[in-house]
């Protein structure tokens, strides 16, 4: 009899434990969680005061995990009447080089803005359509009266959610890059774009006293 009571108790306890488990996150909550993971990841990397080359590698890992680099590269490299056609091989090469450009660009911007003791918070998540979200956030800086307004475009890619764009103080980073490279793409095509990215990365590395392969 005692053993039966023990069995009943165990089964009831197990059932209550299962019911107490957290419900699956909604897609909007998942979008919020991804943005928080990216932002807090960046802040943690910057707070460690490691060499810039180390921070670039760590920031690259965050970006490659959470950003839709294929779609971002596709958007930036297709401004309109681009000279010539692009092969899959060349696109992959451009994506790899453009990713390096994004990483170095983000790292420099983050280092310029980071002053220590910043506070990041998501203020709202807006649904823009099926699997599309705009995550609004603020970065509070101690010596700045107004917070930085940062918005994140998060899209569903397959079964995952990925960051497609970051809008800092109403300036889309993807659109800014598209505008920046449009004339090169139209004048020199994809090969010219690839070469230009390499030159920019090399110039950046020279300024930072780094020697890297592109």
Overview of the molecule:
The protein is α+β, with helices and mostly antiparallel strands and 214 residues long. The chain has one domain (25-207): Roll (Nuclear Transport Factor 2, Chain: A). Helices cover 58% and strands 19% of the residues. The protein has helices at 2-20, 27-47, 52-66, 69-76, 88-113, 173-207; strands at residues 119-129, 132-140, 148-157, 160-168, 171-172. A five-stranded antiparallel sheet has the order 1-2-3-4-5. The model is unreliable at 4-20 (pLDDT under 50).
Short précis:
Helix content is 58%, strand content 19%. It is of the alpha+beta class and 214 residues long. The protein has a five-stranded antiparallel β-sheet.
Structure characteristics:
214 residues, globular, alpha+beta, five-stranded antiparallel beta sheet, Nuclear Transport Factor 2, Chain: A, 5 strands
List the helices and strands and how they pair.
Blueprint (H helix, E strand, L loop, with lengths): L1 H19 L6 H21 L4 H15 L2 H8 L11 H26 L5 E11 L2 E9 L7 E10 L2 E9 L2 E2 H35 L7
Helix pairs in contact: 2-3, 3-5, 4-5, 5-6
């Amino acid at each position: 009899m005692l053993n039966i009571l023990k069995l009943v108790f165990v089964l009831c306890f197990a059932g209550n434990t299962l019911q107490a488990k957290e419900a699956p996150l909604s897609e909007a909550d998942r979008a919020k969680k991804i943005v928080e993971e990216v932002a807090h990841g960046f802040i943690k990397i910057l707070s460690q005061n490691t060499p810039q080359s180390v921070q670039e590698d760590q920031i690259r890992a965050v970006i490659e995990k959470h950003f839709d680099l294929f779609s971002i590269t596709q958007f930036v490299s297709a401004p309109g009447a681009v000279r010539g056609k692009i092969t899959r091989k060349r696109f992959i090469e451009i994506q790899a080089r453009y990713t390096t450009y994004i990483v170095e660009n983000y790292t420099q911007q983050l280092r310029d803005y980071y002053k220590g003791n910043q506070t990041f918070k998501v203020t709202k998540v807006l649904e823009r359509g099926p699997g599309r979200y705009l995550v609004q956030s603020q970065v509070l800086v101690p010596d700045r009266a107004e917070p930085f307004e940062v918005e994140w475009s998060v899209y569903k890619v397959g079964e995952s959610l990925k960051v497609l764009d970051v809008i800092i103080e109403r300036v889309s980073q993807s659109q800014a890059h598209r505008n920046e490279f449009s004339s090169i793409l139209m004048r020199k095509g994809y090969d010219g774009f690839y070469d230009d990215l390499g030159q920019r990365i090399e110039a950046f590395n020279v300024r930072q006293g780094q020697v890297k392969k592109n």
